Amino acid sequence: MKKFKLYLLVAICSLFVTFSFAQRSSYNIKNGFALGGGLTQFDIITDNFETKSNTGWLAHMSATVDIPHKWYNVSYGMQLSENKMSVNGFASALSSNFEPIDYKILTAQVAFLVHAKLAGPYLTLDFGPVLQYNSDLEFDDEGQEEWFVAEFDSLLAKDFVDITNFNVNGAVGLTAGFENFKIRGQYIYGFTNILGDLNDSNAANFTNKKFKGNQSMLTIALLITF
User: Fold this and answer.
1) pLDDT value at residue 22
2) Per-position DSSP letters for the chain, written without gaps between them
């Protein structure tokens, strides 16, 4: 059901991006469209666990309004990604060796970005808000569900998967390239507490701790523009 909701959001966002720029305008602007894909490095910045970022993938689409006589362009876009991260854990209560518990998380992001022209259309500084729907944490290896998180040796790894599904982020980055081919790097930081839902779970009841974490996500994508 959660994956169905994620894909439904992607479909709605796609329609929004497509139709937002289908109308005529009296301004001297040029509308563009971009498709692409790339890689992500995802992590959660938190004092509750020892985490490590891993590499995932993303798919990107966006519509751009090119305003020739302004110092900026704007774009509406969305991207779907599968991200990976890990936390330290133990395979059993008797183990003393740390081993990574590998998680993955699906995200659908909708962004409104301003592109400041540093060198005309060939290099821009990109920044703006990002709304995100994401899945709960899922195991790369379901056999690790019964493992123990290192910081909480009385609780299983599966007790820590229920994270906040709607989050508000900010993005900043650079886009460089030519008319039909660009490369974009971004850093996306989560302003909301992505671990907030854990505070209403059994994990909080047993540990008497408040969970807090902020998403940290690096992306690099190759874009074909039309």
Assistant:
1) 45
2) -HHHHHHHHHHHHHHHHHHHT-S--SSS-EEEEEEEEEEEEEEEEESSS-EEEEEEEEEEEEEEEE-TTSSEEEEEEEEEEEEEEEEEEESSTT--S-EEEEEEEEEEEEEEEEEEESBTBTEEEEEEEEEEEEPPPEESSGGGGG-EETTEEEEEGGGG----SEEEEEEEEEEEEETTEEEEEEEEEE-S-TTGGGGGSHHHHHH-----EEEEEEEEEEEEE-
Give the tens place of pLDDT for each residue, 60-93. 999 998 888 889 999 999 999 999 999 999 888 7
pLDDT tens, position by position, 154-166: 788 998 899 999 9
The CATH number of 2-19+32-225, from 2.40.160.20, 2.30.30.100, 1.50.10.10, 3.40.50.720, is: 2.40.160.20
Rounded to two decimals, the pTM is 0.85
Question: Taking the chain, what is the end-to-end CA distance rounded to the nearest angstrom?
Answer: 35
User: Mean pLDDT in the chain?
Assistant: 87
